[in-house]
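Entry 14. Ran structure prediction on the chain below.
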Amino acid sequence: MDTIVTIHMFGEVYKFKAEAGVADAKEVADFLMEELGRVEKDLGPQAKTVTKTAKLLLATMNIANTYFNLKRQHMETVSELTKRSDALLLALEAVPDTPPPIKE
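Output, structure tokens:
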């Protein structure tokens, strides 16, 4: 069953149908609204003269910037984990298969 997500923005109501299984559609819409609120707060008194489209574009650019920063951090983390796991694998491969004899 599809989910209907409702967004109240600029005094208007927008409804979107989210695919079944998209559990976080409401969370995504809320995130957009939070970012839009931050943009309007950052604009201060100037927010009244900035168009709706410009505000949405600023919010979208901020979200995209966050996404690309997280993507870069993720790639760096994967790279670091790959290096560490390769080093660990090499160390494990250097361990002899048979334990040393026990001296009596």
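The radius of gyration is 25 Å. Will compare against last week's run tomorrow.
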